């Protein structure tokens, strides 16, 4: 009898462990408040990059200049002249050609990261050190072996970054049965590992389909993965990396996956058409702001140069409860917010072929 009870207990435990989290749908009506944002133009002397962030209410912009490397500009925000230029230098030899982005370090608000798309690596930069040494400043590249995209990482703790496994797939038809997350030591500089050596144990190359906006919070013990291609948000416990909630929004695009052999060791899985869901995030200890791109075009469909879509910002609590919906007046690529929570700062445009503009919205 005791053995039978023990066996039943084991079956119950195993079944609970294997239980999948049901997807929760949310609608626009679930947001108790909707705000239509009014644009407030900003002018800066140098060309605007779509990749920027606010560090201590200073705007940090990274632009690329081909073989000359990249340029980092810091603009002070003040009440008199919205943005003024205070520093501009190039990191020269061994620089980050095709440097693409600047991200916040949620643990250290005085640092940011620059991304090298070609080598799939980045560098952590302390803004005080940068301003102190200027021309003499040199950055160390950090390589992320096995991570799907250098964009899809965030600080996990003082010792580690966290990112998605390059072979992880959320699509059941093209599933490599690989765990989602990888931890990478923050102190492992200039480490190069061949991620293709392990391809023989997998069926598909899926890294083109699983990009997310990833961020976490120590206070609430949460790690979010907001998909860049479909309107879906997965919320994990940060310590155990256990999936707690999976939310699917009203802009859940009907994405079609295609698989082809294009000369790689593995069949390459891609998404048919152009789909833009979550593009950027801003977090506080009390809430999450997610920028929704709100564009979708099926394969073969003409993509107009004029962008009719208007991006939106969704505000949630850390458990995914909808709090507020912000509707912008144009399409936005990137978003951040000042420390007082008074403005959204965005790079946006209405015509794709024209240069993006840096604008702000009063909250």
| Cα radius of gyration in angstroms | 22 Å
Structural class of the secondary elements?
Answer: mainly beta
Form type? globular
Estimated helix fraction:
under 10%
Strand order of the largest sheet: 1-18-17-16-15
Provide the CATH topology: Neuraminidase
Largest sheet, strands/sense/barrel: 5 strands, mixed
Give the key terms.
five-stranded mixed β-sheet, Neuraminidase, mainly beta, 363 residues, 7% helix, disordered N terminus, 2 helices, TolB-like 6-bladed beta-propeller domain-containing protein
Description:
The chain is mainly β and 363 residues long. It has a single domain (24-362), classed as TolB, C-terminal domain (Neuraminidase, 6 Propeller). It has two helices and 27 strands. The strands form seven sheets. The protein has a five-stranded mixed beta sheet, with no helix packed on it. A hairpin with a 4-residue loop joins strand 9 (111-116) and strand 10. The longest helix is centred in the first third of the chain and has 17 residues, at 2-18. It is globular and about 50 Å long. The model is unreliable at 1-19 (pLDDT under 50).
Topology (elements, then pairings):
Layout: H1 2-18, E1 23-25, E2 34-36, E3 39-41, E4 52-55, E5 58-64, E6 70-77, E7 83-91, E8 99-104, E9 111-116, E10 121-126, H2 127-133, E11 142-143, E12 154-155, E13 160-164, E14 181-185, E15 212-217, E16 222-227, E17 232-237, E18 243-248, E19 256-260, E20 268-272, E21 274-283, E22 288-297, E23 312-316, E24 322-327, E25 331-337, E26 343-349, E27 357-362
Parallel strand pairs: 1-18, 2-24
Antiparallel strand pairs: 3-27, 4-5, 5-6, 6-7, 8-9, 9-10, 10-11, 12-13, 13-14, 15-16, 16-17, 17-18, 19-20, 21-22, 22-23, 23-24, 25-26, 26-27
Pfam families: TolB_like
Organism: Butyricimonas virosa
Protein name: TolB-like 6-bladed beta-propeller domain-containing protein
